[in-house]
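Hey L., structure's done. Input below.
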Amino acid sequence: MKSHERPLSPFMIGPYYRPQLTSMLSITHRATGVLLAVGTVLLVYWLTALAAGPDAYAGAQACMGSWFGRLCLLGWSVALFYHLCNGIRHLFWKAGMGFEIRRSYLSGYAVLAATAVLTIAVWVAAW
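Output:
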């Protein structure tokens, strides 16, 4: 029997393994979970400063209102909406729906589109 040279692991990105939409969305889902935890710490800092008085709040507001603070808030809102939409997609999977390749890809693109639309809508409304 002829031995085929096959990759030993799907981690061999390059000529052996091409990342798929579903795997990239899964990895991104986990990463956004971590980003949401970090962003929540910043939100707690802001709320604590609010409770601590006007001086503490002014310092926190200056930090959050800077270009870097707003960039962090934008990233947090993207992570929030992505994690929400992809979590809903996972709920459908847990119910046994959407496992076909075509539907899996359509739902993946729908998650990306919904993330963009929700993020833009919130930032336009807040601006």
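The chain has a mean pLDDT of 90. Residues 21-52 form the longest helix (32 residues).

-- N.
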